[in-house]
């Protein structure tokens, strides 16, 4: 035994002279990842000792006291399921009951497409996970395709399709001068894209601009998609949260369905049920018939298997309990309208407060836009001044999270915006 140990030590000593890799050298080539711009804003806010600090960068709902909210319908659903939940795995496709109820929200309560079983759908890890599943599905079955993404869009969209190795193109969306939709350029891009292109569309409450096409514009977009044979993938992260009415917020999708498109859709319950940390979402792909839907779903599950195997159960059970119980669903509809109405009210208050200060600029875009975010039009330098001089935190593209605006800070925020914008 002693001789074998000595021999082993000798081998190790001799090997070390030939450059055996040390433990410390395995990851020497790894550089720090760039900070997420939104999470970086929150970190800076938390580190600021100023009593006047305001965070309008966070993409999560807050009440008028600036506090996170747990909806009453969620609390009641949790009390119903308490003690009745086992810890078994869900299937790869997730909770079928949750998926069924979720499809009704997007495709319609009495949708023939649901009755005909033409929709391949799986539970996903919120909207982000749904987008990633679809991106991988696109890469696998249309390997030579690209994805057209609006300028601007939620920053993570670029990360998702990049990591799925799907080449990206962009299309015009926001018009900086009018702070509205650049509809003419958008339509030109749709017409000029190669036939059969994939497009990423925000179903409602476009993030980060808050600028949505009108119903008439959506109909024109749908028509041009039909003419050019394009595929529309909708990211619907804010259904109900935009207008306060889930049916109204699904109008873009319903228009495409009326026109006979086969679409894809990512849905999330982070915003409209406040289930941010539960990561509850759904990916659906409309197919030609039930047979095709079964095949597509099998492939979506196959993609999910090596990623995370199967999705979590608790949040899905909360959603299915709320949506399948008429009383709880009605309570949810009331609560989501309260959240949306507060956001809309804060838009009005912010605009009025700025205008009362005698601003020479137009602030109509604050109330023309919709949803959680307001694309303020402030420059990166003006945003820096807001942070450095007024302790107001937001992303440097000027995106204001209206959820962070309250009756207590709206006057202070308006005064600061007026100060930095007038002296530009």
From TrEMBL:
Protein name: Aspartate aminotransferase
Organism: Tetracentron sinense
Family matches, as Pfam families: Aminotran_1_2
An MF annotation (GO) of this entry: pyridoxal phosphate binding
Record bears the keyword Transferase: yes
Family of this protein: Belongs to the class-I pyridoxal-phosphate-dependent aminotransferase family.
InterPro entries: Aminotransferase_I/II_large, Asp_trans, NHTrfase_class1_PyrdxlP-BS, PyrdxlP-dep_Trfase, PyrdxlP-dep_Trfase_major, PyrdxlP-dep_Trfase_small
Subunit structure: Homodimer.
Further information: In eukaryotes there are cytoplasmic, mitochondrial and chloroplastic isozymes.
SUPFAM superfamilies in the record: PLP-dependent transferases
Cofactor(s) for this UniProt protein: pyridoxal 5'-phosphate
Gene Ontology biological process terms from the UniProt entry: amino acid metabolic process
GO annotation, cellular component aspect: mitochondrion
Catalytic activity: L-aspartate + 2-oxoglutarate = oxaloacetate + L-glutamate
Keywords annotated in UniProt: Aminotransferase, Pyridoxal phosphate, Transferase
Aminotransferase class I/classII large domain location: 52-417
